[in-house]
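Quick start: load a record and inspect it. Here is DYW domain-containing protein:
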Amino acid sequence: MSNGFLRFKSFKLSTKSNTINRWLSTGFEEHQLTSVQCGALLQSFMSTKSVGRGKRLHAYTITSGLLFNNTYLCTKLAAMYASFGEMVDAGLIFDRIVLKSSFLWNVMIRGYANSGLPEDALVLFGEMICFGQKADNFTYPFVLKACGDLLMVRLGREVHCQIVVRGFAHDLYVANSLLAMYLKFGEVWVSRQLFDKMSVRDLTSWNTVISGYAQNGYFDEAISVFRVMEQARVGQDSVTFLSLVAACANLSDLELARQVHGRIVGESLEYDAFVRNSLIDMYCKCGFLVGAVKLFEGIVDKDVVSWNSIIAGCVRNGEPVRSFTLFRRMRAEMDEVDQATLTSLISACNQLTALQCARCIHAYIIEIGFGFDITLGSSIVDMYAKCGSVEFARQVFDEIPTRNLFSWSAIIAGYGLHGRGKDSLSLFGQMKHSGIKPDGVTCVSVLAACSHAGLVDEGREIFEKMSSEYSVVPQMEHYICFVDLLGRAGRLEEAYDFIERMKMEPSIDVWASLLSASRTHNNMHLAEAIADKIFHLKPKGTGVYVALSNIYASARRWKDAEVVRAILRQRKLKKPPGYSFVELNRTVHWFLVGDRSHPQSEEIYAKLADLRIHMKEAGYKPDTSSVFYDVEDDVKEKMLECHSERLAIAFVLINTRP
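Running the structure step on this input writes:
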């Protein structure tokens, strides 16, 4: 009997489908359709997202007279337009319906919430309550979504109270929406408490909490919840792994990243376009560019996100030349280039500091129609300043039609980078006069400009006005800038006292700034004291350890210098080699210390030998104080002779006119 019923039901569905197909193939305008038949067609169009056919049927219902005073068809039409995201048309039909059902209210609230119109969704929800219509488990999820999108914490909590009072708190769909709303508010622990109290959880529940942790910066907690999810034997999908990949990327944990990648392969999700592009980005952020490139090259149907991920990854990992090589391949294989691509190329130019390269990128941006984009315009201003031409930077800045805070910050920082602190201060004044209030980034830019130009009093005035006039609470980067300002001006004791009086615990970078200034001004007593202080803070990067070693070596504390180097070896930390580069005839030439890989290497060293003779004849005596090794002076001199800067200068001398 059961099998017979199923066969009968299957026959009915098949017959209904065939009938709909016949209407569509011959044109429903040729048939005398009933309201029920039109409703079936509208439902079919909603399922297949057939916007054009839906509008044709709407026209048919008007011309045939079927729509007149037909609440059933009007409701179906409103639902169709809402599902297409065409809320203006849905709203017009909705307003004509006198007797609005709970289904219709829910359809409209859902449509507004899913179409990026959360305010309209909440207004309609208020009208629904005023009309005496009770909300149900299909209403609340989209009301909660709207509250979350608008960050309306108070209203969200009030709706939560309604849900508890009306007994919908244990509905799985509603509970998942509550989790998502509180995570949007940043109230991670409230969301976790709700999650822990849920008697029934589905995949969406787990994914919501894991992604919420990752999006709010709680990456370790996201991994922890995933491990609990595994213990509960809940299956994972691409959404789960996208959140995990983001967590690994932000933690820069390569070992964990490899484990997650292995799980993705085990679940056969490595061919999902979103997942594989995220994996490329993850490996780049973990510093494993080789793995990222291998993944990228294995993709047959590369999309623009794939290209952007690997290009940005090369820039992030200090390989700007490789990023341009990939960009040329990208242009050869596809036409699509977006703002993310161009932003990465600008960052690559910033690393190369090659002016000709910057001009080429700027010309290309104008050529493809992005020339008037404010964000890109601000980035181009910054690019030209970093590539050595503040004049070009100013020209681009003056051509930006509507300047925002980023534009002003870029040009202020640009002038500061070139030591033109007074110009930076003048622009800072113009920005305030134009009605734009400086933020923390702008304050960093102008403080740095004052530091490079030695404008101590002006920098002090800006620092003191940050809280009172600009409503900017000084952060660590502002303290670093101000310490650098005092240090460069030789006010070392004042800088030391300032650090001691800081309202927050000074970071290693604050002390490192003063350490650098102490070395510059030959105050070795203070430098040694700061070095000892930094050493006990156990810094993580190589830069501070190298500076510490150099300080101890300058003070001839060779044993302490060796202890620092031993720590570097023990922690497997390696200082990236210093290099010098020059741009000549539209080509960038790179040189390392003692480099002999350049095609003109023999000529370069011959030029250096010739220069050395002339320099000694002129009375030059090498300053070996910058060689921080316990070796004889003649060995130190030889170490200086093949410095990367000397190689670069010799190369330019033999390839340019006198």
